[in-house]
C-alpha cells in the first residue's frame, strides 16, 4: 500500500508540475505576431556584425554596400534539388542553399500511408552569417546554384564570380540518416572579414507526428551536448531558453518523441543560445525550436568547416552505431530517454537486448511485450516471494505482538517491549525489513521496463 501510494503521488505530482499554465499558453499564441521578436533579431544581427568587424579597419571607405560582393546572387529562381539513399530523402532549396525538407522512407505518418516528413517548406529555416567590411551577408537572402549533383550528394554554391565562391557540400551516407555537411570557401580571401567563424541561425517548428498531442509534447524537447560533459535539455513542459555563453557544444537536437533533427559540429559550436516555445494543441505542431550559434570558418578556404545533420529516428542502437570508430563520442543515443542512471543501465544492457531478441522472432509487438513482462516477473519472483512470506509471517505473529503491547503499556517499558518483539522475530525467522528490501531490489527492474516502453520506437503505431 505504501509503495502504491508513493507511486500515485509521484505520477500525480509529475503531471501537475509538467502541465503548462494558462499564461504560458496565452503567451505562445502571441509569439509569432510579436513585433518585439523581429526587433530582437535585428538587434542581435547588428551586434554580431559589430563584433565581427571590430578588428577590421573602421576607417576604410565603403566602396559598395554589403550586397555588392554577391550582387549576381541577389536575384534568381527558387528551385528544389533532392538527394536520397535507401532510408531518407533530403530536399534543398536554392534560396539560401539550405535543407528544405526531410523525409524518412521507412516510417509512416499519422495516416499510416505516406512516409514521415520531419519538416517541409517554412517549417524550418537556416541562415549562415558571413561578414565583410560593409556588414553582414545572410545566406537566406541569396540564391545558390546546385553543382556536382549525384543521387546522394549535391553542392550548393554561392558565387561572387567564377573564381570566388562559398560551397555548401551535402553528402548522404549510404543506408544512413547521417548527412555530411561542409562549408568551403574558394577565392574569398580578402573579400570576407578575417574573423575565423560563421554565425548560424536555425529554427524549426516540430510537427505533431503522433496522434496523442499531450504525450508527444511531454517527450519532445530541445536537447544539446556539452563537449566533454553530459547531455542537457530545455524544459518540455513550458517555454524555456538558455544562453550557454562560451561553452563548447558538440550538437543541438530538435527532438520529437520518436524522431529528431540534429546539427553536429566537428569543430564545436560556441556562443550558443537556444529557445523552446510551446505550440497550441490543434495547430499541427508540438514545439517551436530555435538556436543561434557560431562555429569555425576559414575565409581562406585552406580548411573546410566540418558538420553533420542527423534526420532520423530516436532508435537507441541506430544512434549508438554513429559513435563506432569515433575517438570523441557524440552520444546521440542519449536522445532516447531510458530513465535515471541505474535504470538507464538496466535498459541499455538488458531490456533493449532482450526486446530486440524477442522482436527478431517475427512476433507481434503485443506478444513481445507479454513475453517480456512474464520474463521480468520471473526475474523478480525470488524477491517477490520473500516479500509475500515476510508479510504472511508478520500477519501470523500479529496476535503475539498485540499480547506484548498489552504486557508493556507504559512508555518507560518501551525498551523491554522492543527487546521482546525482536526476540519473537528472531525465534520465527522474521525480519521487519523483509518486506521492504526485496521490493527495493525489484523496483529498478520494474521502473526500467516502465521507462523503456514509451521511448521504444519499435512500438510506434503497433496494435
Overview of the molecule:
By secondary structure, this protein is of the alpha+beta class. The protein has ten helices and 18 strands. 33% of the residues lie in helices and 31% in strands. Strands 5, 6, 7, 8, 9, 10, 11, 12, 13, 14, 15, 16, 17 and 18 form a 14-stranded antiparallel sheet that branches. β8 and β9 (164-172) form a beta hairpin. The two termini are 32 Å apart. The model is unreliable at 55-67 (pLDDT under 50).
Structural key phrases:
463 residues; alpha+beta; 14-stranded antiparallel β-sheet; 33% helix; elongated
Describe the secondary structure blueprint for this structure.
Layout: H1 2-18, H2 22-29, H3 35-52, E1 80-84, E2 88-93, E3 98-108, E4 115-120, E5 124-132, E6 135-138, E7 145-147, E8 153-161, E9 164-172, E10 178-186, E11 197-207, H4 213-218, E12 222-226, E13 231-233, E14 240-245, E15 249-255, E16 259-278, E17 285-296, E18 305-313, H5 316-321, H6 341-359, H7 365-379, H8 381-407, H9 414-428, H10 436-455
Antiparallel strand pairs: 1-2, 2-3, 3-4, 5-6, 5-11, 7-8, 8-9, 9-10, 10-18, 11-17, 12-13, 12-15, 14-16, 15-16, 16-17, 16-18
Helix pairs in contact: 6-7, 6-10, 8-9, 8-10
